[in-house]
Amino acid sequence: MPFALSHGHCALPTKPRSAAHSGQNLVELALTLPLMLLLVFFTIDAGRAWMTYESAKMAVRSASYTASIYHSASVGQTQLNNKLAASGLKGTGIVKQIPNQHAYQSSVKVTFTPLFAHLSIPTISGPQRVLPADINITYAGVTDVSVY
To answer: Fewer beta carbons within 10 Å, N or C terminal of the chain?
Structure first.
């Protein structure tokens, strides 16, 4: 049995690799890499969806606040449209005054497209989509009361 020498000292005996174990690392990598990549990309997409939701929420809050400060739904609508455009979101929103009150309510509906929206898995019955093409995110019900 061969011994490995390390700086003049006798180390533990080493075994030569057999031919049966030569591809083990490659097989383990082939089995685990797709799952690890799926986990990483799902995490990235979940973060992007959360960022889209938070951007929509901030646009709605800013629009309601601006409308209540300026006592104008049209100014709030302009603010909402500017915030959506600055965030790069595709969507529509509305700012309206609550009747007989000095309060403004706004809501927005944006569309989120996942990175792998067009990924499909081949099956016997035909390709099956993994994710929907678009996900609608709605944030509504933000009300700010203006104080005179």
So the answer is: C
Cα distance between residue 127 and residue 119, in whole Å = 9
Average confidence (pLDDT) over 42-69: 92
C-alpha–C-alpha distance, residues 107 and 59, integer Å: 9
Distances (CA, A) of 46 to 22, 23, 113, 135: 38, 35, 11, 12
Per-position DSSP letters for 21-55, written without gaps between them: GTTHHHHHHHHHHHHHHHHHHHHHHHHHHHHHHHH
pTM of the model: 0.73
> What is the average per-residue pLDDT within 72-85?
94
Any residues with CB less than 8 A from the CB of 111 and at least 6 apart, and which? 89, 90, 91, 134, 135, 136, 137
In whole angstroms, what is the distance from residue 97 CA to residue 60 CA?
14
